[in-house]
Amino acid sequence: MVRMTLALVLGLVACTDTASTDTSQFAIDTDGNGSIDCTDLDHVVTCIHHPDPHGCAHADVNEDGAVDHQDLHDIYAGLAATGHHCDDPGLHDPADHATHDPAH
Questions:
Q1: 2, pLDDT greater than 60
Q2: Residue 30: inside a domain
């Protein structure tokens, strides 16, 4: 029983990752111009509003299969972590505040 408890505890500890993500990994060249800069952030914004399978191939910054506000958040954080000072792209997503009426 002690071995099983020890194995369970070690398994839980191994599966618990308290380390923060290195956001600099999200600073990538999304527009393919050869440099990592604030235009990459603008490119992700454009791809959210006007998806193009060819022009937006690298805009899925977090590689979750969709170009969305999470990619915008991630590249903004990544650029900031690598010393770029870009204008805030307006990370507010109106869907975050959609009201939910339990009666419907």
A1: no
A2: yes
